[in-house]
Hints:
CATH superfamily: D-tyrosyl-tRNA(Tyr) deacylase
Distance between the termini: 10 Å
Number of strands: 8
Enzyme class: hydrolase
Keywords: Hydrolase
Oligomer: single chain
Organism: Hominisplanchenecus murintestinalis
Strand content: 35-45%
Protein name: D-tyrosyl-tRNA(Tyr) deacylase
EC number: 3.1.1.96
Amino acid sequence: MKLVIQRVTHACVTVEGETVGKIGKGFLVLIGVGQADSRIQADALMKKMIGLRIFEDSEGKTNLSLADVKGELLLVSQFTLYANCKKGNRPSFTEAAPPALAEELYEYMITECRKRVAVVETGRFGAEMKIELCNDGPFTIVLDSDK
């Protein structure tokens, strides 16, 4: 499982011109699910993500977590995080989970995050989405269950 976490001042996702998810200060999280992933990987990465201390404190040091700043989450499924570009110029996505598994783990993460974070918004699984964000920093972290 791979998560690309961007600290944002705000972000939104639209599908066919309709805003389906919108947050203020918090994390925009792109979620990629691999073929061998399960709830075990999802739980470990969620715990790490929610506990990340990447918001600045009063001294300008990154000491504060999502909970400390009452941050929000925007979770977006993105199978292209499993693109393999080793051969040629056309990416292969064979390492990505089949849609049924990917959707199951994406929905599981949404449910579990809503137990821990007050505001959790989402994209729409399998849809063509447009994402707008203001990356704060910029600050981007990649979590990979294989590393």
